[in-house]
Amino acid sequence: MMLVSFQQWVVATRSDSVQQVFLTGGSPMRTQLLALISAGLFLVPSLDAQVSLEMQPTEANADITNVTLYRNRAAITRTSTLELDAGGHAIFFRDIPVTAFLSSVQARVSDNASLLSVDTSSQPIVADNSKLVAELIAEIEEVEFQLASNNSQSEAIQLQIEMLKTLIGKATNDKESPVDIEEFDAQLAFIGKRMEGLSENISANAKEKQDLKDVLDNLKQRKRNISADNKYQTDAIVDIGVARASTVEIQLTYLVNNATWSPVYSIRANAQGNVITIDYDAELSQKTGENWNDVSLTLSTAQPQQSTTPPMPRPWYVDVYAPPQPAAAAKRRSMNRTDMALESRHMGTVGAADINVEAASANATVVGDGPAVSFVLPRKITVPSNIDDKQTTSLGSIETSAEHYLIAVPMLTDRVFIRSEVTNKSDYILLPGRASIFHGSDYVGKTSLSTISPNETFSLDLGIDPSVLTTRTLVEKVTSSTGLFGSGKQTMYDYQITISNGHDKPIEIRVFDRIPVSQNEEIEVILQKLSSPLSSDAVYLRTDRPQGIVRWDLTIPANMTGDQSFAMSWQVEIARGKDIELSPLPE
Fold it and tell me: Using CA of residue 443, residue 444, residue 447, residue 453, what is the dihedral sign?
C-alpha cells in the first residue's frame, strides 16, 4: 500500500518539466489505496492533512512508438495517450516480453500529471492444453501406424528377394532336362530386373522409415514439452496522479535482449577511382517477442547493462610450494572456484500520415553523446520479431574524393592492384563492418572496415588493373672472393623490373620489393646501382625501410608497352667472411 501526501502530490503536478521515475522494486501483490478525497479537498486543501488516493485501474492500450537499438540490446518505449479524470490512476501496460530486464523499467508522464510509482507484476497463465495434447496423440498414433505399414512392406520385399533366390537356385541346379539357352537368358534377365527393382524399394523403404522415426520423436518431444511449458504474463503498472481532468501521455521504457544491429557498406568508386561513394547501411535483427510496427528508430553504439565499474587487480601471493591435496579435496576446491567465477560474472552485469518522400529518404541524423554515437532515422520503420532473415535499412550516403594510385609487387605477382586513399569527409563514424566494393560497374569483392572517424583517411583496394603488368627478373647472381688472399666472400644479385602501361595516360604506381636484413655484424648488405631512387615518403622510411622493404614511387608515361615498357634495375651485395655460412636466401 502506498500513501501519498496530498500536499506533495499537488505541488508535484505543478512541475513544468517531464517527470521520470525508475523501478525500485515492489511486491507482485498490489493493494489499491482507499478513497478519502472529497471535492472540498481539491478546492481548499489543508497543507498539513494527510490523505490517501484510490488508484483507478486503467488499461494503457499502448503501442511501441520508439526503439533505441544497441548492439545486443534494445530500449523499447510504449506510449499511451489517455483521457483521465482528476484523481489517482493505475495504468496497466500488459504483456512485457520475457526478454525484458525488469530492473530497467522506467516511466515518464506529461507535465499535467504526477508520476508516483512504477511496479511490475507476473502472473501464471493457466492454459487448457487438452485439445492440443489430443491432437498430438492422434498424430503420434498415425505415424506409428505408418511405421507398422513400413515394417510390413520391408518384410514383403525381403520375402520376394528370398523367392527370387530360390528360383535362381532351381534354374542353376536343374540337371534332369537339357538347358534351353534362350529361356535361361530370359529367366536371368527377368530375375535381374526384379532384384534391381526390389533393391530400389529397400532403399526408399529405409529412408521413409527413418523420416517417420524423426517425425515420431519430434511429436513425442512436443507432447513432453507441453507439461513443462509454464508461461507467465508480466505487466507493468504505472501509478500517476491527475489534478484536473485532461489528456495525459504516459511512456513506459524497458530494455530487452535478443536484438542487435551491425553496419554494412557498399563502396562504389568511379572508373578513375578518384571519387568514392559509401552507402552506409544497418542490418537489423530482433527476436524479442514483440513486433516493431511503424516505430521511430535510433541506432546507438552505447552499451547499456554493462558494468560501469572498472575491474581492479587482486593481491598476488607467492609462498613456498605445497604438495597437491588429495583428489577429493582438490575437486571440492575446484568447484568453489567455479562458483566464485560464476558469481563474479553475474556481478559484472548492472543491473504521421503522408510523409514527405524526400524527408524520409534523408540521411540519418548523427547525435554524439559522450563516447557513444547515435543515428536517428528520419522515417518510421517496421521490424518483425522472430525472423531469421536480417533487415537492412539505409543510414546515409557519403560522397568523397580519393587519391588514386597503383600497387605492384612483381616479386610475388605480375598483376597490378588499384588502391585509393579515401578520406571520410562526413559527420559519420564508420563502425567496423563488412563492405562490398564496386569499381565502375564491376563488383570487386568484399572487405572489412575498421573504425574510421570523421576526417580520417583509410586505404581502399579496388581490384586489379588489367592494362598494367610488371615483371621482375634476376639478371645475374655471382659469388666471388674478396680481400687479400681471398679472406672475404660476396654474392651479387642483379635485378630488373619492367612495367607495361597500356593506358593512354600516365599512371602513378608504387612498386615494392625487398632486400635481406643482416642479423649479424659480420654480414653486410648493400643496396646499390639503383636506376630509380627509392621513395622519400616519411612514413615508409620510418616503418618499412628498416625492415628491408624497398619501394619506388614512379610515374609511368602513357602507352609504354612491349619494347617501350619502362625498365629499372638495382643490385644487392651481400659481403661476409669466407668461413661464414649464410642462411638460405630467396632469389
Answer: negative
Which residues, 6+ apart, have CB-to-CB distance to 222 below 8 Å?
Answer: 136
Cell for 359? 524527408
C-alpha gyration radius of the chain: 40
**Are the beta carbons of 264 and 447 closer than 8 angstroms?**
no
Confidence band of 294 (pLDDT split at 50, 70, 90)? very high
d(CA 257, CA 382): 18
Please give the Cα distance from 546 to 525 (Å, whole number).
Answer: 12
CA 146 to chain centre: 44
- Pairing type for strands 292-300 and 63-69 reads parallel
Nearest to 515 by CA among 477, 553, 476, 572: 572
- Residue 169: phi and psi, rounded to 5, are -65, -40
pLDDT digits (tens, 9 = 90+) for 490-511: 889 999 999 999 999 999 999 9
Compute the half-sphere exposure of residue 271: CA atoms within 13 Å on the CB side of its CA. 2
- On whether the pTM is more than 0.85, the answer is no
Which of 108-117, 131-140, 253-262, 408-417 has the lowest average pLDDT?
131-140
Q: Are 247 and 106 in contact (CB under 8 A)?
A: no
pLDDT mean over 560-581:
88
Q: Which long-range contacts (CB under 8 A, 24 or more apart) does 26-30 make?
A: 26/117, 26/119, 26/120, 28/121, 28/122, 28/123, 30/90, 30/119, 30/121, 30/237
Residue found under cell 487448457: 128
- Dist. CA 552–CA 533, nearest whole Å: 7
Query: What whole-number distance in Å separates Cα of residue 575 and Cα of residue 580?
Result: 10
The dihedral of CA 516, 517, 520, 526: what is its sign? positive
Cα–Cα dist 414/410, whole Å:
5
Beta-ladder partners of 100 = 256
pLDDT category of residue 317 using cuts at 50, 70 and 90: low
